[in-house]
Amino acid sequence: MMLTGRWILGAFLMTFGVLTIFAGAFFALGSIGGIGLAAFMIGLLLTYLSSQTAVSTELLKAYGISSAANLERFLREFAPEGKATYLGIKDRLDPLMVLLPLTENSSPNPDEFRNDDRVFILDSEQRGRAGILLEAPGIPLLTLLEKESGVNFFEVGREELLETLRSGMVDSLNAVADLKGSFIEKGLKLEMRDESLEDLSVSFNRIAPITAAQLGCPICSTAICAFVKSARKDVRLEEVIHESGRHLLTLSFS
Fold first, then answer.
1. DSSP state, 93?
2. CATH tag for 139-253 (out of 3.30.1380, 1.20.1070, 1.10.1200, 3.40.50)
């Protein structure tokens, strides 16, 4: 069964909603929690209505972009400058997390915060420990990809990674039209071409450029998460470029 953009968008909004609810509780800010609850409910509704053709695609995109704009304000407020590190996992059930340094000079030790429940890592005496710890945006889409393809990327080796990822993203999900890449000395380069989700990708990157540049859009983050599970190492997002109909990623082992 091909999954539609509604499934993908709904899963993304539910994850974003839960993260925002936790952030609101952490800072005791009811307004942030309210945004998260609204995003979660919208995501749940979209997932439930995924088989209903009467729901307008434009309406779905409008809801998704609104939530992306809220996340963009959140990141703009804290202005992270460092490169995001997707934390490697040791067990297939470990959560996929992203550590985002607040400045170029800060480099929190991933091992110290791998199982940390906090959202913000702040140490006034050691500014090098300042960062934001989030669940990876690509988790929902990767979960759906693995379910549809019957593949667990924790069990996929380097030799099969690119072909398995291409098959899942193109054939199982119909999320992209094509995917190709090559391993470099200490990482991976990827290129993905949009298909059914192109309008959503364009709008997301326009409305939330900081989010897209720091963490990658949902499509990019999905590919990174698959690489992290397969490599079982910390992976740093060195560069992400969103051009017309294309996603270009450069990843390195941190």
1. T
2. 3.30.1380
List, for residues 75-98, the tens digit of each pLDDT value. 777 767 778 889 988 888 788 888
Taking each helix axis from N to C end, the angle separating 139-149 and 5-27, rounded to the nearest 10 degrees, works out to 140
- What are the strands, taking DSSP E only, across 75-130? 85-86, 97-101, 120-121
Interior CA angle at 146 toward 140 and 151, to 5°? 160
**Sequence-ordered list of residues with C-beta below 8 angstroms from that of 153, at least 6 positions apart, any chain:** 142, 146, 161, 164, 165, 225, 226, 229, 230
Residue 96 CB-half CA count within 13 A: 29
Contact yes or no for 155/180 (Cβ under 8 A):
no
The angle subtended at Cα 50 by Cα 55 and Cα 56, nearest 5°, is: 15
Q: Using CB atoms within 10 A of its CB, is residue 126 exposed (0-12), middle (13-18) or buried (19+)?
A: exposed
Nearest to 135 by CA among 215, 190, 72, 236: 215
- What is the per-residue pLDDT across 29-87, written as a single tens digit (0 to 9) for each? 444 545 555 555 556 555 544 544 444 445 445 555 666 677 777 777 776 777 888 99
| Domain spans, the chain | 5-78, 97-135, 139-253
Total-model pTM = 0.71
The candidate with the shortest Cα–Cα distance to 49, out of 2, 1, 9, is: 9
Q: CA 156 → CA 5, 37, 143, 150, distances in Å?
A: 26, 36, 15, 12
Instruction: Count CB-CB contacts under 10 A for residue 218.
Output: 29
